[in-house]
Write a structure and sequence with these properties.
This protein has 205 residues and is mostly helical. It folds into 2 domains: 117 residues, no CATH class; 35 residues, no CATH class. It has a two-stranded antiparallel ribbon. Helix 1 packs antiparallel against helix 5, helix 2 crosses helix 3 and helix 2 packs across helix 5. It is rod-shaped and about 130 Å long. The protein starts with a helix and ends with a helix.
Length: 205
Amino acid sequence: MSSPSIARFAARAALLRLVPGVVLATSLGLFSAVVAADGPLTIEAAQRLAVARSRQLSAQDMAVAASREMAVAAGQLPDPVLKLGIDNLPASGPDQFNVTRDFMTMRRIGVMQEITRSDKRHWRTERYARAAEKSVAEKAATLATIQRDTALAWLDRYYAEEMAAVIAEQATQARFEMQAAEGAYRGGRGNQAEIFVARGALDRW
């Protein structure tokens, strides 16, 4: 297995050890983008990408905005209500559904305004304001979790690639030692035992 293949395999295995859920999905999406790009990625850039790809953070932003809008609405009086009505409308006979012929038919129109006590509006506003603050705190906790788990994934990938590079270097060294042992044997400066030892070391890779 070549060094890049080892690195990618080890990095993918490391990522799969992350916690399930949104953070894992974000990190896996980030990993796929990085592998496709085959470019260097700093830990800070990885965290920025993970945050940008998080749908949970976007949902919490919307929850904060909704709570703040509800807080504003809760502090205001309800909108006036227009009411229309017809009483004693004939349902049969020659005046059926006629609103002008029967003297008992009455038409009503009016405006209704609900008056909510100021203290009640105040506490409603406070409730939605506290909900907005809670959503802000939850977003901060989610952000910290994404950044932490992305950093762990980046470190796992980094160490996997470094280990793959060491393994590849050692395998190359083993091939050189094998070639040197064979050359020494052909030149009469070595023996078959040295070749067998070198070949055994190479076979382990």
